[in-house]
Structure formats: structure tokens, C-alpha cells
Amino acid sequence: MTTGLPPYFFRVRENGAFVFRVLTDDRMRRIDMDQIAMVNTRNGEIKPHGDRQLAEEDVAAIRDWMADRAETLAMRDIDDIHRTVDHMNMTAHWVQTRATDAQLDLVSDALLLAMHDLRSVLVRKKAERLMRSVDGDKDD
């Protein structure tokens, strides 16, 4: 177990976080958190809380957190897609082995439309990538 607390705490919210400086009073083992800023990860904005002026080390720590957060969210997106592929495979198995006619009537149209939409987007994006790579080869 670590002995010291981090100097900052980031309370995550949908588009960023509230940033708190962690203050400790070792004599009484008391922890206080002083809100110093609000962060918007979508546009990169850092707003000091109230009339506060952020120190360079505050801004540096916030920017480091923002970079780490963006990386974490990107990894989660990919993980979600891998889980979706697994779920689609499990759904195919369910349809083939256990689904009743009534259950299939409830989900077939929605699944077919969603899969058609996904297939259309994937095919278009792959064609765009192929065209860019062919165009890039012509420039060489």
C-alpha cells in the first residue's frame, strides 16, 4: 500500500473532470480536497475554479491527465468493439441454437437493419482507405 496520496484528484464527468488539489493534515490524518479547475476533454479547455490562478505545475498535471485520459478512452473504444464482435458471434450462436420463432420475430428486423448499416459504413470506409493508399502509391 502506498504511503502518500497523489497531489491531484480528478472527478471524472462526461466530457472531462473536476480537478481537486489533495491536501493532507498529517497530524489529524485528515484529507481535504480543494477544487482548482474544471477540464473539458473534448475541446481541451482548462477553466480555473472561481478566481483561482493555476500554477504551471497544476496545468502540467492537468495536461498529463488529459493525455492519459484520451489514451484510456481510446483503448476502451477498441475494447468495446472487440466485445461487440464477441457479442455478435454469441448472438449468431443463440439464433442458430436456442432462439424461438417469437424471439426471432422480436429482434430480427432491428438486427438486420443494424448489421446492414454497419456493413455499409465498413465497406465505404475500407474503400476510402484503399483509394487513399492507391493515390499515395501514385505520388511515389
Short description:
The protein has two helices and four strands.
What does this molecule look like?
It is a single chain. The protein is elongated. A hairpin with a 2-residue loop joins strand 1 and strand 2. The protein has 2 helices and 4 strands. The chain has 2 domains: 1-98, no CATH class; 100-140. The model has no long low-confidence stretch (mean pLDDT 93). The protein has helices at 56-97, 101-139, and strands at 8-13, 16-25, 30-40, 45-48. It has 140 residues and is α+β, with helices and mostly antiparallel strands. 58% of the residues lie in helices and 22% in strands. The protein has a 4-stranded antiparallel β-sheet with strand order 1-2-3-4, with helices on one face.
Topology (SSEs and partners):
Elements lengths: L7 E6 L2 E10 L4 E11 L4 E4 L7 H42 L3 H39 L1
Antiparallel strand pairs: 1-2, 2-3, 3-4
- Share of β-strand residues: 15-25%
| Helix and strand sequence | EEEEHH
Largest sheet: 4 strands, antiparallel
Please give the share of residues in helix. 55-70%
Strands ordered across the widest β-sheet? 1-2-3-4
Backbone shape: elongated
Report low-confidence residues grouped into runs of 5 or more. Answer: none
DSSP E strands, number: 4
Helix run count: 2
How many separate domains make up the residues? 2
Key traits:
single chain; 140 residues; alpha+beta; 2 domains; 4-stranded antiparallel sheet; 2 helices; 4 strands; 22% strand; elongated
